[in-house]
From TrEMBL:
Organism phylogeny: Bacteria, Pseudomonadati, Pseudomonadota, Alphaproteobacteria, Sphingomonadales
Compartments, as annotated in UniProt: Cytoplasm
Reactions it catalyzes: AMP + diphosphate = 5-phospho-alpha-D-ribose 1-diphosphate + adenine
Gene this chain is encoded by: apt
Protein name: Adenine phosphoribosyltransferase
Entry's family note: Belongs to the purine/pyrimidine phosphoribosyltransferase family.
EC number(s) recorded for this UniProt protein: 2.4.2.7
Amino acid sequence: MSLESLTALVRTIPDFPKPGIAFRDITTLLADPAGFAELIDRMADRIRPLEPQFLVGVEARGFILAAALARVLGAGFVPVRKAGKLPGPTVGIDYVLEYGADRLELHQGQVPVGARVVLVDDLIATGGTALAAAQLLREQGAQLMLALFAIDLPDLGGMDLLRNDGVAAEALLAFEGD
């Protein structure tokens, strides 16, 4: 299956979550067995040479991709969640969004110092959440090898934000516009 075929499986929903936004919905790609398998295979091929110990998925669709990749690559899966969603002791980071603030957390000690990790999410737009997750992982002493996304919205600058902070970042698919 080609990248163009994968791109065609992503549904665009106009004016969601607000007027003027073209929402890129990956759930249609995930629901297609051949498309989902191809996406995971392509992402795994990119990650495999890095020999990660953990795939770190960002809530919520990043969980789906990172868990599948962890299984394929024989690595552990670690969720990065919104505040208050994880039981037990956590570490977190507060970050600024376009219209407010939020917090990401992971279980304390779940990513050992020096662990080789790859950060995974379904989509990168402005990059604020991905950058916060990357910073949280680095604060825990992880070796962040790569931030990998299924979809990039390059006009929104998220990849540049990560790269300017020293994070290697890639995406398989790109959609122009917001």
